[in-house]
Amino acid sequence: MPELNEFIHQAVRLRIMAALVALEPASEVDFTHLRDLLQVTDGNLGAHLRKLEEAGYIAVDKVFVERKPRTYVSATREGRRAFEEHVATLESILRSE
Amino acid sequence: MDISPSEAQEALAAIEIVAQKTRQSIAGSGAYVTLISTGIVWLGGFMATQFLPEGVVPHIWLGLSIVGGTLGTIMGLRAGRRVRNPSTAPMAKRIGLFWLLLVLYGGAAIAVLSPMDGRQLTVLITLFVMVGHMAMGLLFSFTSVWWVLPISALVLIGYWLFPGWFYLWMSLLGGGGMIALGLIIRSRW
How far apart are CA A2 and CA A46, in angstroms? Predict the structure, then answer.
């Protein structure tokens, strides 16, 4: 049985990846919308996003829209692959019951 | 790292809930906003066309279209800020040009086929708009175009089978149907 991805399995990071992978590939979600969707604080989300970015699972793009700073987040190809593998492992654990 | 099957089930359930919420809030937002705002315009406009004197009807359509268009644009812009897709952003000008050309071709088709009665004109304009929505969906993999086919079918059924009550049909089944679909997507997608 393949190993679970401990890094992704952390509760907040798991939900972040689930949200990002649900988007169409190459789509980016606004930081504030992601925060509201997951019902986490700015600090908590920011900390987990940094870790996911360092792992290469997500990409963060900071831009100015109408002179206001906005942060967009997307899952990388590597992130999508890692998340899908993690989900497959969870499903195999469930099947082995 | 080892976890029990019940923990795996909890994790999968959490993933499913977030994925569903994301689809509902992002992918579905464009669909239900478009459906509900267009549905309200159709419901009011066609109801007026069926029952009110001819002189009043164009003013009602104009008012409803402005309100519906403004509402749809504001909601669409808000939804667009939540999620962006850099790969489709450069296509914005082409999308605008496509709709402009569709309007011009539609106008040309109407001019060639004139004179037409109100029902024929309604069906033709509706079908052109539906073709536009369908093209957007097929070209850009938008998730909100599947509703085009049933609405188009309803328009044609009403045109051929219920000519005397066509506008009422368009109001209740076309407009009401769009509102109902929009509400279903909003609550269940």
Answer: 30
